[in-house]
Structure formats: structure tokens, C-alpha cells
Amino acid sequence: xxxxxxxxxxxxxxxxxxxxxxxxxxxxxxxxxxxxxxxxxxxxxxxxxxxxxxxxxxxxxxxxxxxxxxxxxxxxxxxxxxxxxxxxxxxxxxxxxxxxxxxxxxxxxxxxxxxxxxxxxxxxxxxxxxxxxxxxxxxxxxxxxxxxxxxxxxxxxxxxxxx
Length: 163
Hints:
The chain is mainly alpha-helical. The protein has one domain (4-152). Helices cover 56% and strands 9% of the residues. It has eight helices and three strands, in the order ααβαββααααα. It has helices at 4-11, 22-31, 40-43, 71-83, 93-113, 119-130, 136-152, 157-162; strands spanning 35-37, 53-58, 61-66. A hairpin with a 2-residue loop joins strand 2 (53-58) and strand 3. The longest helix is centred in the middle third of the chain and has 21 residues, at 93-113. It starts with a helix and ends with a helix.
């Protein structure tokens, strides 16, 4: 369990630029038939318990909800929630530990790949769930999902022109 000071770090908002990556991640989520919602008027009741994001199924399909925040924070949240697409359903505490650790690990690795630092949020979040202990299964899932996400992010006109 986290100390009150560590919990404040987890809850601390990330500030900064996402280098234009959030719209690309939204596009990737939409390619998997997700609706991405980041309008606080729509998400405020669902995220009222303090969560920053949520992957939720509705009759109309799956939605990824992201709390309105800085571009870097939104990228980190959406990366985490999108990673849940590939984790097993949470049915017990052990499944929650696996799913949350892998999803946050993926958000961290993908962000780091693009030079974005979300460690002040990721490390405490992972510690909250598994005290920093990674199983081989977690490591392999993080590696595979992160590689997929990095390779699948749509290119922008800028990146396509540089290739």
C-alpha cells in the first residue's frame, strides 16, 4: 500500500507537451473500434471517483475515457487505457495486479520511446499494485504490447516526410 505522500505523487498531474502524439494515439484507438472521449462534461460522472481514465464497454461499443488535462497527461492516460485492450479481464486481485502493472508499464515504455517522461506517475502507480515486483509474464506482455503500440501509431505528415 502507498503512503499518503506516495499517493499524492500518483495523483499528481503530469505537465508538458506530448509532442503531438495524443491525436495519433486517439487515431490508433479508433482503428480498434474504440470511441475516445476526453470531454469532462461527458466523463465527469463516470470518472467522479478520482480516476483519470477508464476503458468501459457500453451497449454501443467500447469507450476509452480520459480526464481533461495536459497533453502529456492525456497521452499517458490513453496509453494506459489502450494497453488494457490486450490484458486479460480483471476477475480477482491477482488479475488486477497483472492488468494494472502491464498497462502502466506499457504507458511508461511507449512514452519513454518518444522521449516523454511519465516516471513520476508510472513508478508509484506500479508500486501501488505490485510493490515493484515484475513477473516474467508481465515483462513479456509489456514488451509485446509496447512494441505493437509504437509500431502501430499512425505517422503524421511530418514523420512521413522525414522517412
